[in-house]
């Protein structure tokens, strides 16, 4: 182990890089490693600093990349903080799916939104209409269904209702009407979320007029 003893209340550690002074050049990497059963060192995670834009004299905008390692692979970037302060997470789960082309909801039961528009991580299943949580966390979901008359539906997690709503039009009115549910719910890894219709007096509108979406908040 290494101990750095400082006498100042606000110690500063500098890692000085001799890399080229250009956009994209690396300024340093901190890497953690452990020994495997044969005594070889294996990297587990890294934090890397790079120049994040065209630098000028005495000014080098920089970004931080946080890298982790899955079994048997080299570290890859899972989160980046840009020089502007934007945080991006390329592995963050999210999805949006519509009813498949020409498909309408015609009765009660689980709804299968069969046309994925976005599906980062492939955690949404277009065959059964279920999003399966890859990790424990707080998730946001929303569903919109257009129907000509009354429709009651729920957002459910593992078959248990977490949000419900209904829309009942005046029979004197003519046209399609939209009902939307939005919820935030905690899920554990392996639990699934889907949409369930409990009452439908007439068929829904088809394809993109009915949509289901969600993402991991934290």
Question: Which labels suit this protein?
Answer:
218 residues; mainly beta; six-stranded antiparallel beta sheet; five-stranded antiparallel beta sheet; 49% strand
Describe the structure.
The chain is mainly beta and 218 residues long. It is built from no helices and 16 strands. Strands 7, 9, 10, 12, 13 and 15 form a six-stranded antiparallel β-sheet that branches. Strands 1-2-3-4-5 form a five-stranded antiparallel β-sheet, with no helix packed on it. The two termini are 33 Å apart. The mean pLDDT is 90.
Could you state the order of secondary-structure elements as H and E? EEEEEEEEEEEEEEEE
Computed CA radius of gyration, to the nearest angstrom:
25 Å
Sheet with most strands: 6 strands, antiparallel
Please report the total strand number as a whole number.
16
Structural class call reads mainly beta
The overall average pLDDT, rounded, is 90
- Determine the fraction of residues in helical runs and give it as a percent range: under 10%
C-alpha termini separation: 33 Å
Q: Beta-strand level of the residues, as a percent range?
A: over 45%
Q: Runs with pLDDT <50, length 5+?
A: none
Oligomer: single chain
